Amino acid sequence: MATKKIKYPTHISPAGTAVYPWLNKADTKFDADGVFSVKLIFSKEDAKKVSDIVKPIMNGGKNNPIKPHMDDQGDKTGNYIVNFKMKAHVKTKAGDEWDQSPIILDTDGNRVMEKVGGGSLLKVAYQAVPFDAMGGGVSLRLVKVQVQTLVEYKSEGDNVDFGKPSGDFKTEKKDVVEEFLEDVELEGEDEEDF
After folding, report:
1. Which candidate among 71, 167, 174, 181 keeps its CA 20 to 30 Å from the CA of 146?
2. CATH number for the segment(s) 11-156
3. Distance CA 7, CA 131 (A)
């Protein structure tokens, strides 16, 4: 007997502030198949719009993707944090496998190639999917992301300030064509005629 594939409706979140986005590259720290994810911080009113979709399908499950947002001291801020995710490599029980990644768009519908960093203002297209494993609950499957305001990700090494220079070392600047021609001439000098 074939199992019927369930089609879940796609919902659009309100705009929220991104925390720990893994949208350009999958996170493989805890799952070798990789997971794309983003947590968005919403006001209570905006979180309710997502909760109205999640609550009816929780069925008493323990795993709710909506949690109170806490500050660095562990105190509630009055906002809520919502977790959206997508598996990078999918393996079905039937043996099918494929890779996927979220589609990231700007407000005009153009693809975003920049690295989306924490603090970006995003809307997410998602599917609310109930599950029974590990105490049950709801997972919010990431489908697409619309960047409202981009805060581009930069690694810690990108922002190194060496301060005022104390030495006077300068490298010699050469034209790329000049360097290529010098390399070609040097290579030619080593060759012998036979």
Report:
1. 71
2. 2.40.50.140
3. 14
Those residues whose C-beta lies under 8 Å from the C-beta of residue 127, and which sit 6 or more positions away, are 8, 9, 10, 11, 140, 141, 143
Which parts of the chain are beta strand (E)? 10-12, 16-27, 35-42, 66-70, 76-87, 89-91, 97-99, 103-105, 121-131, 137-149
**Which one-letter amino acid corresponds to residue 134?**
M
Give me 59's structure tokens. Answer: 């069925």
**The model scores a pTM over 0.85:** no
Cα separation, 31 vs 181, whole angstroms: 48
Spatial CA neighbour of 66 closest among 1, 161, 139, 134: 139
Question: Is residue 64 helix, strand or coil?
Answer: coil
**Residue 27 DSSP SS3:** strand
Asked if 85 and 35 touch (Cβ cutoff 8 Å), the reply is: yes
- Enter the tokens of residue 8: 């879940």
The answer to whether residues 158 and 129 touch, using CB atoms and an 8 Å cutoff, is no
pLDDT tens digits, one per residue of 111-161: 999 999 999 999 999 999 999 988 899 999 999 999 999 999 876 655 556
CA distance 31 to 54: 25
**Per-residue pLDDT tens for 83-96?**
999 999 998 888 88
Q: Give residue 194's pLDDT.
A: 35
